[in-house]
Amino acid sequence: MTSTPTKPAVSTPDRIQRVQRRTLAVLSAAQIVGGVGVAVGLALSSVVVDELSRSTVISGFAGTATVLGAALLALPAAKASGRGGRRAGLSLAYTAALTGCVISVLAISLRTWPLLLVGLVLVGGGSAGSLAARYSATDLSPKDRSARHLSLVVWASTIGSVAGPNLAEPADRIGRSLGMAEKAGPFAFAALAFALAVVIVLVLLRPDPLILARAGTRTEDPGRNRTIRTAWHTLRTTPMARRALVMIAVSHTAMVSVMSMTPVKLHHDGSNLDVIGLVISLHIAGMYVLSPLVGWLADKAGKVPVLVLGSALLLGAAALAGTAGHRVWQVTAALVLLGLGWSCGLVAGSALVTESVPIERRPAVQGLSDLLMNVCGATGTIVAGAIVGLLGYGMLGLMVGIMVALSGLWLTAVWRRTS
Q: Which InterPro entries match (predicted)?
């Protein structure tokens, strides 16, 4: 869903500030609504696939499908943003998610799990939109506030992530009362949430922040950009952006690898669902609740120091998780640190990517960043399952710790050499 960029009026600093405040509010609203859609869908996707396929193995493909969808839609959304502005890219991602929810409702009604997996791939567009929204928050930001503005939009995800799963059961009851198949209601509700996100973006995100930021600075026609080629060329010639992208990918891989296997570890240790749910809730709080503080620190102390801090937190999390044994409190502490380390990597890394590349090439590089992040996340879940299955949860902590330590030492060495 693209639109033809129009030349914005000459902007004064006061007008830019007013537009940026409005932009942050609109993006936060879209994050909350879109986050509800993502969380409602994810709350039941693996359960529904398990019921329809009668296979625990196949049920694991539900999470993989949504992560794969987020990766596949990252570049098309970035290309749409490059051509038509942020409204075009965000509305494309959320429209794909809406379509995926409709397909999912149909698949549940027909009781066919392959069609449901197809729908879940498109539902991944909701995650792609959520990731793209954080970059949209930086288009009009002053350089000394880019991380803070980005982190505010990341923080808004907390509301949808917490509220979404709790709405699944009421949505199912309402859906069944309307004649829908069991468990189709939550996906119909998610479709409405994504539809509202599309409306918010298209109607309220005006003027478009990316188009306004490009006014008077465009050196190339974004409509002629080939997203992947542009992104790779920019990364080859921009070492700082390349380093930031690596750290985002490492942080995300470490987080999803440990987080995805922790419920399995706790279940095998005899913990009940209430305990598992509490641990994951505290982990999500670590990911999002302090993100504004992380953004403030990145702007004040520098993006690279916060990336190094994130590596240290992730290393501590891996060490705690790997040596936890049957101690639930230690696993919980590890998951909280894991969320905080991820927050440092995502917020500081994303802000560093943004400020390191020219405005006309940002959507391409940002899209590639999200693509690689999601591919690494999907790979991390698969490899983590194999490690835990063959060698145990402790070995997963060791392997993640080694990965994080090597990347953190590399970044620190490069930073000291170039500073």
A: MFS, MFS_dom, MFS_trans_sf
Considering the chain, what is the average pLDDT of its residues?
Answer: 87
Q: What is the 3-state secondary structure (H, E, C) of the chain?
A: CCCCCCCCCCCCHHHHHHHHHHHHHHHHHHHHHHHHHHHHHHHHHHHHHHHHHCCHHHHCHHHHHHHHHHHHHHHHHHHHHHHHCHHHHHHHHHHHHHHHHHHHHHHHHHCCHHHHHHHHHHHCHHHHHHHHHHHHCCCCCCHHHHHHHHHHHHHHHHHHHHHHHHHHHHHHHHHHHCCCCCCCHHHHHHHHHHHHHHHHHHHHCCCCHHHHHHCCCCCCCHHHCCHHHHHHHHHHHCHHHHHHHHHHHHHHHHHHHHHHHHHHHHHHCCCCHHHHHHHHHHHHHHHHCCHHHHHHHHHHHCHHHHHHHHHHHHHHHHHHHHCCCCCHHHHHHHHHHHHHHHHHHHHHHHHHHHHHCCHHHHHHHHHHHHHHHHHHHHHHHHHHHHHHHHHCHHHHHHHHHHHHHHHHHHHHHHHHHHC
pLDDT of 128-171, one tens digit each?
A: 998 899 899 999 988 889 899 999 998 988 887 777 767 877 88
* Residue 195: pLDDT over 60: yes
